[in-house]
Write a structure and sequence with these properties.
Layout lengths: L5 H4 E2 L10 E2 L6 H9 L4 H7 L5 H20 L1
Organism: Leptolyngbya foveolarum
Protein name: DUF433 domain-containing protein
Pfam families: DUF433
């Protein structure tokens, strides 16, 4: 199964959430996801706390970040 393009799952608009990257269709910044993970929350907890965010959005974001790290390792 093909992974969704993360750019289709995220958006950034100057007049929405102070211009921060958010999960598309929400006002939830992607930074909130990483802050919650850092504080020990699970993905399931995050999805429960932010019901507008979908698992597909979270997985696309994680896939994107992992691919970015792989590119750094190659350089």
């Amino acid at each position: 199964m093909k992974t969704p393009n993360p750019l289709n799952m995220l958006e950034r608009q100057p007049d929405k959430a102070s211009g921060a990257w958010v999960f598309k269709g929400t006002r939830v910044p992607i930074s909130a996801f990483f802050e919650n993970l850092k504080d020990g929350a699970s993905i399931d907890q995050f999805l429960e706390w932010f019901p507008g965010v979908t698992r597909a959005q979270v997985e696309a974001l994680l896939d994107y970040k992992f691919a970015a790290l792989e590119q750094i390792a190659i350089c």
